[in-house]
Design goal:
single chain; 104 residues; alpha+beta; 3-stranded antiparallel β-sheet; two-stranded antiparallel sheet; binds zinc ion
Amino acid sequence: MSCRILVDRDDGRAVFICSTSDVAFGPIMESVVWAMTFGKSLGCDPRGIDVNDLIGRWGTFFSEHHECRCGVIIPQVVDGRARTMCDDCRELERIEAPCGKKQS
Ligand SMILES: [Zn+2]
């Protein structure tokens, strides 16, 4: 009695399915991570959204997000600035940066 995600084992793409009716619906998404992130972004059960509206929302979501090197899906722009990495990867890159001049 819920919305679940079905994944194609050949190409990894994913669709929402209604576990009550065993019917797939909506857009075919890039991966299970994309599907989970998009599903969460909707803020409601995707089964309650008109299928054409859902497909449109997916198109917008997909065009405005990308996959960080760690696999997390993030917005391409945050506060008007381009974003290439998630907060964790940015923090890791900061930690891995050289610590400045060698002390002599
Ligand atoms: Zn990351």
